[in-house]
Design brief:
Blueprint (H helix, E strand, L loop, with lengths): L1 H12 L11 E2 L2 H13 L3 H8 L7 H14 L6 E9 L4 E10 L2 E11 L4 E9 L2 H5 L3
Antiparallel strand pairs: 1-5, 2-3, 3-4, 4-5
Helix pairs in contact: 1-4, 2-3, 3-4
Length: 138
């Protein structure tokens, strides 16, 4: 329980709104999912923040500390990922929720996406170990 609260607090302290330090633009859905899954499975949350936006108000030291916190709470890479929910909206907008886990350790991720004519943009990304904190986004 303490582990869940600690990760939740650490991740919630990080600004989670996608911003423009590194553009959260992808060629297509497959590139976005491949990038997200690779980074999340390896517990590279700082790199997720850099690639999907949200790191513009965080220093490099903050991102390194976030990675260290993730690795201390989850000492092993995640082995599994599932798409839990999709909310297909109008005009190319969608929101997806994923679960990453190994054993009994879970992290949930919600991404707001906008499919445009020539690319896919990750507008917003949120992380939490508490499913109920994120499912309310739908």
């Amino acid at each position: 329980m303490i582990r869940i609260l600690t990760l939740s607090l650490a991740l919630m302290l990080a600004p989670l709104v996608a911003a423009a330090q590194e553009q959260p633009v992808f060629r297509d859905y497959d590139e976005m999912r491949s990038t997200l899954d690779k980074l999340m499975m390896a517990r590279q949350v700082g790199d997720v923040m850099r690639r999907f936006g949200g790191s513009d108000e965080m220093s490099d030291d903050d991102l390194i500390a976030l990675d260290a916190r993730m690795r201390s709470l989850f000492p092993f890479d995640f082995k599994h990922v599932d798409l839990l929910r999709v909310d297909q909206m109008e005009n190319g907008w969608s929101q997806e929720m994923y679960a990453y886990w190994s054993g009994l350790s879970y992290v949930f991720v919600v991404v707001l996406l906008h499919q445009r004519d020539d690319n896919l943009v990750a507008i917003n990304i949120k992380f939490n170990t508490d499913f109920y904190e994120l499912i309310g986004s739908f």
